[in-house]
UniProtKB/TrEMBL annotation:
Species this protein is from: Micavibrio aeruginosavorus (strain ARL-13)
GO biological process: trans-translation; trans-translation-dependent protein tagging
Composition skew (Basic and acidic residues), residue ranges: 142-153
Gene that this sequence comes from: smpB
The family this protein is said to belong to: Belongs to the SmpB family.
Role: Required for rescue of stalled ribosomes mediated by trans-translation. Binds to transfer-messenger RNA (tmRNA), required for stable association of tmRNA with ribosomes. tmRNA and SmpB together mimic tRNA shape, replacing the anticodon stem-loop with SmpB. tmRNA is encoded by the ssrA gene; the 2 termini fold to resemble tRNA(Ala) and it encodes a 'tag peptide', a short internal open reading frame. During trans-translation Ala-aminoacylated tmRNA acts like a tRNA, entering the A-site of stalled ribosomes, displacing the stalled mRNA.
Protein known as: SsrA-binding protein
NCBIfam families the record matches: PRK05422.1, smpB
PANTHER family, alphabetized: SSRA-BINDING PROTEIN, TMRNA-BINDING COMPONENT OF TRANS-TRANSLATION TAGGING COMPLEX
Alphabetical keyword list: Cytoplasm, RNA-binding
Length: 163
């Protein structure tokens, strides 16, 4: 969960709104891109309150553009009913043509997947999504990751107990 300003309760610039931790476990993340995201006013307000989830989100091609699918941004409670947005609507990602061609080439030729890694506000206060080209991990890779993580924790405990 993102840190919020103590006075206003909102997320300010240069802060992460949400992380997709599951993506780091399920995929080998190779190359990362920062993309703008096309949002409505109520979606930005919900993001400022930290009401977002990237857990089941993915990015894909539609008519030569990259779109973010299944990203959950909660409805903004203070807005009227006619101003609300659909929480899981597809959202267009704003990338340069060169980046779009690179991503789509890797997906079609090399079998990569485009995975959203985190959603954040940059220094100018604009909402950005960090996406990554990813290869899926096999089951034995996931077990190896878990073993390394557990061993790291045990190592820290041993070092702490020696001091």
């Amino acid at each position: 969960m993102a840190k919020k300003d103590k006075k206003t309760g909102l997320i300010s610039v240069n802060q992460t709104v949400t992380d997709n931790r599951r993506a780091r476990f399920d995929y080998h993340l190779e190359e990362k891109f920062d993309a703008g995201i096309e949002l409505t006013g109520t979606e930005v307000k919900s993001l400022r309150h930290g009401q977002c989830s990237l857990n089941e989100a993915f990015a894909g091609d539609h008519d030569g553009e990259i779109w973010l699918y299944n990203c959950y941004i909660a409805e903004y409670q203070q807005a009227g009913t006619h101003l609300q947005h659909a929480p899981r609507r597809p959202r267009r990602l704003l990338l340069k043509k060169k980046e779009i061609h690179r991503l789509m080439g890797a997906v079609t030729r090399d079998g990569y997947t485009i995975v959203p890694v985190k959603l954040y506000f940059n220094a100018k206060g604009l909402a950005k999504v960090e996406i990554a080209l990813a290869k899926g991990k096999k089951q034995y890779d996931k077990r190896e990751t878990s073993k390394e993580r557990d061993w790291g924790r045990q190592k820290q405990r041993l070092l702490k107990s020696r001091e």
